[in-house]
Amino acid sequence: MSSKGVLAGQKALVTGANSGIGKAVALALGKAGADVAVNYVVDEDAANAVVEEIRRAGVNAIALKADVSVESDVVAMFAQAIKQLGTIDILVANAGLQRDQAFDQMSLERWNTVIGVNLTGQFLCAREAVKEFIRRGVVPSVSCAAGKIICMSSVHQVIPWSGHANYATSKGGVKLLMESMAQELAPKRIRVNAIAPGAIRTPINRPAWNTEAALNALMTLIPYGRIGEPEDIARAAVWLASDDSDYVVGTTLFVDGGMTLYPGFSTGG
Ligand code: BGC
Predict the structure, then answer these.
(1) Which one of 161, 162, 195, 204 would you pick to mutate in the ligand 1 pocket, going by the greatest count of ligand atoms within 8 A of its CB?
(2) Given Cys at both, which of 42, 68, 157, 203 links 121, Cβ 3.0 to 4.6 Å?
(3) Does residue 48 sit within a domain?
C-alpha cells in the first residue's frame, strides 16, 4: 500500500520525533511511503513505539539517539541514517524546546539551551543533510528535487513573546536560516521551506490547553476557534516534502488557525 504513497521510495529523517509534532510528522511520512529515521534524545521507549507504528505502514523505520545541539552527535546520526536507510531525501528539522523565563531573570544557560537546540540544531542537521543531497544529486525516479528540508518554526518567528525571549529569538533565527539556505541551495535543486505552527496540542504547551480556563484564554488568540492538532502540521509536512510542492522554495507555511492575523484587532483598532 505504501508503495503508492506520494513519498514512496524516499528516506526521511525527523528530529525530535518521539513526541508531539515530530511524532505526528514521522508517522505521516511513513504512511505516505517514506522510510523514516526517528531521532530522539530522551525516552527511547517512546521512539521505539513510533518506529513500530511506522513499520506497520509497511515501510522501514529506525530510532536514532542524538542531541541536535551537539555537532558530533549530529554527524554520527546522519552517518547511521545513511548507512541503514541508504540515503536521506527529506529532513524535517523539528526538535525544539522552551525554557521560559522573565527577561531580567533569564540565565545564560536557558538562553544557550534554547538557541542551541532550536537554532544551532537546525543548522547542524541541515548541513549534514545538504552534504548528502549534493553527493547524491537528483534521482528522477524518486523525486524532482535533490533533497527537501522542512524547518519547524513557529508563529513566534514573527510574533514577539514576553517571557520567552530565547524561544522567539530562536524562531526568528530559523526564519532567516531557512530563507538563506533556500536561496543558496535552490540552484542545486534542494528545496528548503518552513512550517510555522500556532498553538498545537502537544506536551510543550500543556499549560495553555489542559484546563478549561486556559483553553478559553487561548481561543481569544485563534480566530478559527480551535486548538491545532499535531496531524494538522503533519499533513502540511507531507505536502512540503513531496513533489506536489515542487515549485515551493523558501516559503514559511503558517498553520495556525489565523493566530498571525492580529485577532486583537477583530474588534479594536
Ligand atoms: C510554542 C507554544 C505556543 C505556540 C503559540 C509555539 O511555538 O511552542 O508553546 O502555544 O507557539 O503561541
Answers:
(1) 204
(2) 68
(3) yes
